[in-house]
What we know:
Layout: H1 3-19, H2 27-34, H3 43-56, E1 60-65, E2 68-72, E3 79-83, E4 89-92, H4 99-106, E5 117-120
Parallel strand pairs: 3-5
Antiparallel strand pairs: 1-2, 3-4
Helix pairs in contact: 1-2, 2-3
Residues 24, 62, 72, 74, 78, 80, 91 line the site of one zinc ion (ZN).
Amino acid sequence: MNKRKNFSNKRNAILNTICNTDCHPSAKWIYNKIKDKYPDISLGTIYRNIALFKEEGIVRTVATVNGEERIDGKTEPHSHFICTKCGSIYDIFNEELTAVDSILCDEGFKIESKCITYYGKCNKCS
Ligand SMILES: [Zn+2]
Ligand SMILES: [Zn+2]
C-alpha cells in the first residue's frame, strides 16, 4: 500500500466514524473507535483531519463540552440540546425554530449561519 492511499484510507475512516454516529463525537472518542483498525493512527492525526474537514465544510463544531470539542457530521441546519450532566448532545430538527428566520428575512436581514443550543439536563439525567 503506498503512502498516499494509506493517508486517504485514514481520512475516510475518520470521516465515516464522524458521519456514522449521532453522538457528536470528540477527537478522543473517534480515536478510541478506530485505533484498533488503524494502530498507527495518532490523536494528532485525528485533530488535523477534523481541522481539514471543517475547512472543507463537511463537519462542524457543535460546542466544547468538558473541555473537548464536539464534532457534527450533519451539516443540514439543526439545533442542539447539550446535557450539562452527562455531556450528551441531542439533535433537534424542529420546523418551528425556523419561524424566526422568516421574520428576519421579511425585515430584510440576511442570515448566513445560525446556531441554537439549549443547555440543561437530558431526559435520562433530569
Ligand atoms: Zn444527560
Ligand atoms: Zn447535530
